[in-house]
Fold:
Amino acid sequence: MSGQSYSLKDLASKVNGDIVGDPNLIIRSIATLQNASPGCISFLSNSKYKKFLSNTSASAVIVNRENAVELQAAGIVVDNPYAAYAVISALFNTYPNPYIGNEINYFVHSTSSVDESVIIGPNVYVGPNCKIEKNTIIHANSSLVKNVHIGRNSIIHPNAVLGSDGFGYAPNKNGYTKIEQLGRLIIGSNVEIGAGCTIDRGAIDDTEIHDGVKLDNQVHVAHNVILGQDSAIAASCAIAGSTTIGKNFQMGGLSGVLGHLDIVDNVMVGAHTLITKSISKSGNYVGIMPAQDHKDWAKSSIFIKRRKI
Amino acid sequence: MSGQSYSLKDLASKVNGDIVGDPNLIIRSIATLQNASPGCISFLSNSKYKKFLSNTSASAVIVNRENAVELQAAGIVVDNPYAAYAVISALFNTYPNPYIGNEINYFVHSTSSVDESVIIGPNVYVGPNCKIEKNTIIHANSSLVKNVHIGRNSIIHPNAVLGSDGFGYAPNKNGYTKIEQLGRLIIGSNVEIGAGCTIDRGAIDDTEIHDGVKLDNQVHVAHNVILGQDSAIAASCAIAGSTTIGKNFQMGGLSGVLGHLDIVDNVMVGAHTLITKSISKSGNYVGIMPAQDHKDWAKSSIFIKRRKI
Amino acid sequence: MSGQSYSLKDLASKVNGDIVGDPNLIIRSIATLQNASPGCISFLSNSKYKKFLSNTSASAVIVNRENAVELQAAGIVVDNPYAAYAVISALFNTYPNPYIGNEINYFVHSTSSVDESVIIGPNVYVGPNCKIEKNTIIHANSSLVKNVHIGRNSIIHPNAVLGSDGFGYAPNKNGYTKIEQLGRLIIGSNVEIGAGCTIDRGAIDDTEIHDGVKLDNQVHVAHNVILGQDSAIAASCAIAGSTTIGKNFQMGGLSGVLGHLDIVDNVMVGAHTLITKSISKSGNYVGIMPAQDHKDWAKSSIFIKRRKI
Structure:
């Protein structure tokens, strides 16, 4: 890739680790234990992969204190190898601003303000009344529709839509009257919004995505949702309107939360599950219909439909 | 925001309402009862919020006849406060054409026709054989692939894809032969297509989205679906190919309908539900596996798998 | 549309079919049996539509040998009418390169290589370290983020995102540390990626989409997934990280597969189903909670929650 290289000493100092072997060893990339080649650093954080430690071609391995004795060559010893790997991965990030050096077309409405440190990709649309703070990145082909505020150090991945119209209509005799969506979307700092996500602005009050939230790709968040700090939501989930969710919420992929609910802090929801009621007790909630061989499923399915209460 | 203001008399006349208090009172924005400040108009449509009526700082409140006696200050009395709120919300819409005043790049194929009243956002792609009628809006970063007709007064939200290739292949010895998709996508008038939606054009005959349909964000509609007038579909749903759906269909988020089905008028489907058979009787259909605490779910799950028919 | 026309002889030779009627008959388009008009060719592949054969206005019909005796007018007799229709559909494809004749803005990073035969639509973003091989098409408003390789004859539909950041974080005391995603996304030849799909590049090793894979719209594939040859996945599905899937996998819409699983060749998964365990036996797996009238569902639902193991 782009040729960054670091001494083992450099890397150890970034993660407050103890060096095993030559501190001047040069590391050029990160690899898994199985696929490493000389010049690579690897890490062991899941005991399932311990079997690969003795045969790896990695020049160095990040390990915890317990596994330090099993190092075949050089290494860095830390309390939490996975956290250390995360820190070191950033050093090998190539092209943190990939838009340098090409002419970029994007649109910022005259009523919006974008800090000069913000990186904006090609074809980004920033509509009226938006404000984007320091060191945030808005990647290619994203649309910030209206009334969107984004804090510092956040990342909006490509083709996301922020501040879109909430789904609000009043029924009338001939169909529906559209309710104009006059609120804002307030996104905090250190937030990541995945590729292809859609987050609506509020109808009157605001939609809020608090600091540290991480959304995977293709997540939908409806108008007037409040999503608490450090929540992490996997791909293809949807949260319906006016639901308030506490801190550290986690949700597996393809799951949803109905509207107008209250969810306390520290709730985990499994994949492919729908939350239909407010949750007042932190914990782990699941609602998957078990997948089975088609014949067995057909029998279970008939059973469920026949038995009532 | 942009400084529209209206007298109470102006607003009352828009919704055929009766004025309580000073007709010349100036209203500058809309707010909820809880968050209103002086200069705001609010509304009471859900009895759950009646408790906020006595303490609101709103200068005026839209209420029904029953609640008119409880008005603390000025107000507008109507039969349906929610419908009145919808009408008045449009008056406070800022920047109905947010693309004015910037240079816009978009693409319209030489075989396509776009009425001069149509608003097109930046980076919109309009491919061959498309026709877009009066007063429709195509928002930023949307793609109209091929053979797409859109009626009047419709809104296509950002990053939607219309007229994409249907998912059609004929199996062959070595995999699949692509079936070119030669049909059209016909979208009616007063339709809204949410951000990030994808709607395929027909394989041979057309895909049809009838007048007044509202799609929330990230909805997928496959080729040759016919979706009846005034249907409303919540976020992250999918409708499979060649299914015909009647008028006033409603579907909660993350739900789906299998292909080649017929659904009559006036069917409502809950969230996170799959419809696997044609529906010949209007009504309310649900197929959610209840979410439970993980331990309880595990027991229910084993029970379902063990008991057959 | 664009006025291609073919003699019946021309068409029969493309599909190795036997001609019934005038070999010089001119065919101008394809239509279904029900909606055909003179000048059209139609096909009969599903016996359900046999009733339309006697009254169709099609000038010619593609049929199998069994149905050849029922032809009212001209036709082409083949072993597999559906496969023949697929081949002939390509002849009537209008504007295979719809981007000719307009000025196109797109972005290719200086470190990336795109074969000169590749068709690129407007507003496409191709970031660092990408390689796109012969005759592949990248449609409008798509983003190739980083480290994306695409083989020959593949089609990327509009507004897709390829090579996006995988959803990887290491928990720390104050939230999460981002894990930079350093791997690649390797897409084979003859692949189609639907509109609005998102496919993440690998964290360290690569994400792989093998030859002949077809993804419908709005499918999400997480980092380090390996998806086997000729797999076909319907709309709005999601596959979680590090799952390895064999050849000929098929999955209905709105379904998912959890992470770190192994799925053998020739597995079919129904719509709206979650796969939570590795699958070592090919076959057909389903996990749908049956949709019912709301009252019946409520009873079944209480029953499920009360009965444990």
